[in-house]
Model the fold of this input.
Amino acid sequence: MLKVPRKSLILLVSSELACLENADFSAYRAPGLAETASLAFEIMPWRWKAKEFDNAANELASPFKSPPELVSLPGRTGVLDLAGYYPSGNATVIEGATHMKLQRPVSWPNGAKVACAISLDMDADSLVHIHHGDRAGDKLSAMSMLRYGPQVAIPRILETYRKFGLKQSFFIPAWCMENHAAAVDAIVRDGHEVGYHGYIHEAPNSLSPQQEMDWMCKSIEIIERHTGKRPRGNRSPLYHMSAKTPELLAELGFLYDSSLMGDDVPYYLDTPSGRLLELPVSWATDDWPPYVHAPDLGYMFPPKPPDAAMDIFLAEFEALRQSPGGVWIGVWHPFVSGRLSRWQRVERMIEFMLNTGDVWFASLEEITSHVNEETTSGRYRPRVDPLPYTTGNQIPEELVGKA
Ligand SMILES: [Zn+2]
Done:
């Protein structure tokens, strides 16, 4: 019989309800304990609709006065049987776990706990050109790896989105739009959002403010020509935003940026040219570190199996479900996450997320509109960061070079 130890928070992991039905919860029946103890369950959530799961959990938690806490384990999802990971009847005790609240949770539509967006940066072969200039043509293998994005991955990705009824966001360098117009047409035809991602994946913080402005203007023109719409959002290539980028974006009518990492919830950037919403990202939900092995581009990460990558992405998702009101943004690339085994795993991830009943899947533009409305109506009091964060050299002379 499974013996449940006396702890403040217990996570029971099981692939079979039966093992929980036979569990001995007597340690929890001590006087006063129900006030301090809570119980958490994880029982193959993707096979349960949310309501069925609630009913079962309530029944199992009947010895307790407090309602059961539903907790999921990141990554142990999809069609894999949990028993493969956790032998039936295994119990894991999490010491010191607390109920953390976000400082400024957003109320998402339909009571969703998490706003979710998979944003795809379709870099294609712009990366070979920006890295190798006139030698790019001799990097045929790297080029083929990158062109897999628009040619093979995009149709696959769009099919998945149609299947689940999702409208999502794509960030595409303007040069790629001109060189892979068919992929862009297909994205636009399906009603997805297209945002700005540099002209040819140049780093904005390597340009002068004037150069940055000029290439931004030229790119906006190209984006408008291919999509029929002015871009509303920015993702700086490799997150290489300059001190000037937010101001230029605000000046040119952009509504949001999604390149910074300063919060779990959206926040505003106040620039001399106006206000911009920041939809924060994280390296933990970026597909570059777990997958990208590209010697010609200078990246040598040993590729991880899709389940291992998903452990990282879903850990963020599960944390946000437990502390509602935040935003989960995948920063992925068609040539990376659109490879067959990885995208099969993504489909199962989307299915799992939708089945939790806790998510609002939306494009970044839709998330921006919602946060702006909540803010304008006074229902939401956002964090506002005045920019720039610092000006001038902050290093005292005698500390120069002491990193
Ligand atoms: Zn990129």
